[in-house]
Backbone:
């Protein structure tokens, strides 16, 4: 059983909350023989604080009777934050009311002190197996949803390519006709066009060119990258802002990009575009309708062959309860309006396709995403 627990628990994390210092140290030392990460707290208040600051934890082990905040109150708060959290409660008293409350809260397991070490380890083994089983199921669900998303994106790319082909001919014709009208009117009048008419003619040509460019950008954006290659960071951000230009305009959000053209990274550009599209799109959604001076600032720097891209908004920030879990699947600040998968997919793309890291923090005025990548 010991070897099996070592195998099951080696990649798992535990938060152990106990107000008896000697018992806490003994159990902590034992837990560290099996689990990859072990954190401790002396009461429920400290435990809840550590849970929220240092999460995620795979297993929480807690005493019931403690000062300041007892184990049941702490567990109730944890279950409110994360209903699926695995919790093992330990108590020196066989109190039926407390046991019933523990069951109502959703605590997985309950042990009485003095704790038999073999029973304790066996219980931890069962919980560890359950945690790992849940992780496998979650990974399968994530993969299924990711494949479905990629399939939809590919289908949309094909559809937009067809639409692009159909629209390019009339758009080109409109451009030519506009120029022909300008030339013909000038010829008939025998003098240059009125300044206002000439200005409007140029605007028509500009709008037609913009429509053609935008259609190409959409079609290209939705095609998955076939190979890893060197690409311009500035170009990627520009492509994303082009895709989001209509939303930015309708929401009255200014996107300020400050990236040197020389900064390049190696990887899959379309997947990278999808990753930063998720972040910028979420920032746009975070702004209130009546908010003034809405701003998203995007900048990049290079240090020791590492590229750091920052995306910062002034939308007010992310609530602390969600902030530390923002990249977990199904966690969203949009209520029913969000799936909770966008930023999780962003994290997977940055970590798995770019060997990078993505973090988020609140600033004085909003949220700031920091993406670190390998430079060219």
Residues:
């Amino acid at each position: 059983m010991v070897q099996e627990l070592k195998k099951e628990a080696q990649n798992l994390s535990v938060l152990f909350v106990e107000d008896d210092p000697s018992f806490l140290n003994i159990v902590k030392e034992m837990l560290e023989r099996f689990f990859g990460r072990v954190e401790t707290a002396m009461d429920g208040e400290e435990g809840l604080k550590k849970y929220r600051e240092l999460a995620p934890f795979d297993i929480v082990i807690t005493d019931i009777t403690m000062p300041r905040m007892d184990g049941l109150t702490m567990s109730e708060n944890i279950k409110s934050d994360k209903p699926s959290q695995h919790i093992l409660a330990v108590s020196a008293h066989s109190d039926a009311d407390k046991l019933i409350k523990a069951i109502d809260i959703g605590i997985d397991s309950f042990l009485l002190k003095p704790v038999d070490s073999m029973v304790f380890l066996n219980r931890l083994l069962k919980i560890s197996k359950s945690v790992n089983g849940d992780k496998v199921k979650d990974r399968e669900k994530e993969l299924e949803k990711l494949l479905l998303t990629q399939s939809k994106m590919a289908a949309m790319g094909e559809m937009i390519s067809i639409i692009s082909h159909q629209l390019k001919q009339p758009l080109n014709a409109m451009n030519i006709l506009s120029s022909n009208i300008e030339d013909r009117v000038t010829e008939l009048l025998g003098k240059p066009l009125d300044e206002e008419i000439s200005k409007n003619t140029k605007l028509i040509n500009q709008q037609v060119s913009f429509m053609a460019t935008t259609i190409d950008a959409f079609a290209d954006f939705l095609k998955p990258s076939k190979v890893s290659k060197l690409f311009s960071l500035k170009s990627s951000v520009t492509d994303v802002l082009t895709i989001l230009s209509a939303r930015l305009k309708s929401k009255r959000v200014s996107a300020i990009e400050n990236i040197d053209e020389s900064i390049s990274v190696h990887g899959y550009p379309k997947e990278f575009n999808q990753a930063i599209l998720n972040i910028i799109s979420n920032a746009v959604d975070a702004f209130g309708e009546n908010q003034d001076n809405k701003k998203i600032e995007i900048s990049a720097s290079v240090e020791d062959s590492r590229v750091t891209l920052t995306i910062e908004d002034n939308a007010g920030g992310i609530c602390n309860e969600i902030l530390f879990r923002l990249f977990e699947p199904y966690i969203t600040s949009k209520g029913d309006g969000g799936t909770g998968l966008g930023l999780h997919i962003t994290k997977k793309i940055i970590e798995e396709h770019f060997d990078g890291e993505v973090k988020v923090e609140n600033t004085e005025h909003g949220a700031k995403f920091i993406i670190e990548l390998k430079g060219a």
User: Anything to note?
Assistant: The chain has three domains: 2-115, 149-221, 229-374. The longest helix spans residues 117-189. The chain is about 55% helix and 20% strand.
